[in-house]
Design a protein that fits this description.
The protein contains 14 helices and 16 strands. It is α/β, with parallel strands linked by helices. It has 2 domains: 194 residues, 3-Layer(aba) Sandwich (Rossmann fold), CATH 3.40.50.2000; 168 residues, Rossmann fold.
Amino acid sequence: MRIALFTETFLPKVDGIVNTLCHLLDHLAFRNHESIVFAPSGGPRYYSRFRIVGLNGIPFPLYPELKLVPPVVSVLEELRAFKPDLVHVLNPVSLGYVGLRHACQLKLPLVASYHTDVPGFAMRWGLRFCYRPLVRFFRWMHNHADLNLCPSTVTQQELMVSGYRHVKVWTRGVDSKFFDPCHRDIGWRQRLTEGESDKRLLLYVGRLSPEKRVDWLVPVLDALPDVRLAIVGDGPSRPCLERQFARHAVHFTGYLSGKDLAAAYASADVFVFPAANETLGNVVLEAMASGLPVVAPRSGGLLDFMVDGETGYLFESESQDALVEAVRRLVVQPVQARSIGMNGRTHILQQSWEHVLDGLIDQYATLIESKSSRG
């Protein structure tokens, strides 16, 4: 198959969408399919032997790292030259609309994948007036697609209730050989705890932005003064968070990747994830594979993977007191916490990227065949 991909974000930016897309490109190459990627400029020219067509974009004010390519751009001739069997737009906003428009012009099967609850994020940013217009916009965009994909059954139900059509689940995988408790490293633990490796270590991994609610961990540290926290990631909220955590035992690492990231996970004791608007949360799967018990909200796509009391603890998503209590239960019972962490790893072991992406390729093939038979 020949798959054309349109994405609003790509390397060097690091987020869940980019991580998923990179795994997809690696797998398409492994299965001997062909692909081309249309993305904002500034990244590599090739990835996993596939050409990346970089297009000039305008920095989004709330996220300067995110460049929005104007929706009036045309790459029709390059798309025709590639001769795709199918177009897949990831988290379509502006460049995604370009892919949508061209797919309709060329009468190609169109897949749209929903990765981010942007309307929910707008609420967290204090932009409540944007919520309904954004819901209508994204529903309109996605309902042009022959197939809509989302990462969890929880999100699928939410989208269908909101009027999205043709919605199926494209879940996420995790490399359980790469993210493994065996990568626990005393050197990394010393670094993450700033030399206090005997103390219990909480870990957060992800973007530092308002919707992630990392500031919710301040009352956790107030209630548990003998606990340390390591924050892995970066983003627009980092300067504010560094001020908020200034009097607490917190270490900011910035972005980590590869073996460093795997060692950071494995060297912690508890994974904390306060964000309540996640369609899934790849970092939670990585933490579970690394043997960490997880504390997360009782909301969103994580409910497909977490079992309260068995693989971690779920807290009521708008209650900071419930978050504090869930973390406390794991901190004061280290033996139980380790057992819960290993339960989580066992639970996630079958969630391989190979299995997940083979399922996606099957959905591509089914859609291409169906579109072809309809003429």
